Amino acid sequence: MEVLSQLQKDTRVPVRISDIDVEGVREVDDKLVILARQLKCPILTNDYNLNRVAELQGVAVLNVNELANAVKFRPLARRNLRGGYYPGGQGDRPGVGYLDDGTMVVVEDGRDRVNSKTTVVVTKVLQTAAGRMIFARIDGRSEN
């Protein structure tokens, strides 16, 4: 409600509140999709399931998570990152760490660096609607 109030105060964003109901439909997601189709407007959401349902029914969707991911820090391949790691992941001996923004970093052979900080070289970045994962290897040039 607070966000809605802020949007209403912003003269650059037209906000219209409606009490239109969709007869015979009980589920909120279904109502939103039907109303969006009738009003010819997109749905703004961070709900992955609503996003998929709307897309499948031909309704435009603005996904807040995708927008947030689009403006996040994007490490380039071979860029050095620092972070603390703990055992996890699949494979031989990976370590898993997190950047300050919550992005997961899976470090090849990083298990021996548990509870320490080390410099890694990014080898792959995987971007999904649910978030970003970074795959890296330990930078052999620096021992910390």
Written account of the structure:
- This protein has 144 residues and is an alpha/beta fold.
- It folds into 2 domains: 2-70, Rossmann fold (3-Layer(aba) Sandwich); 80-138, OB fold (Dihydrolipoamide Acetyltransferase, E2P), CATH 2.40.50.
- The chain is 26% helix and 30% strand.
- The strands form 2 sheets. The chain has a 5-stranded mixed β-barrel with strand order 3-4-5-7-6.
- Strand 4 and strand 5 (104-108) form a beta hairpin.
- The relative contact order is 0.13.
- The model has no long low-confidence stretch (mean pLDDT 79).
Question: What is the secondary structure topology, with strand pairs?
Answer:
Blueprint (H helix, E strand, L loop, with lengths): L1 H8 L18 H12 L3 E3 L2 H9 L4 E3 H8 L8 E8 L7 E4 L5 E5 L8 E12 L2 E8 L6
Parallel strand pairs: 1-2, 5-7
Antiparallel strand pairs: 3-4, 3-6, 4-5, 6-7
Tags for this model:
144 residues; alpha/beta; Rossmann fold; OB fold (Dihydrolipoamide Acetyltransferase, E2P); 2 domains; five-stranded mixed barrel; two-stranded parallel sheet; 4 helices; 7 strands; 26% helix; elongated
CATH architecture of the largest domain: 3-Layer(aba) Sandwich
Task: Point out poorly predicted stretches.
Answer: none
Q: Using the coordinates shown, work out and report the CATH topology of the largest domain.
A: Rossmann fold
SSE ordering: HHEHEHEEEEE
Give the strand content.
25-35%
Q: What Rg, in angstroms, do the CA atoms define?
A: 21 Å
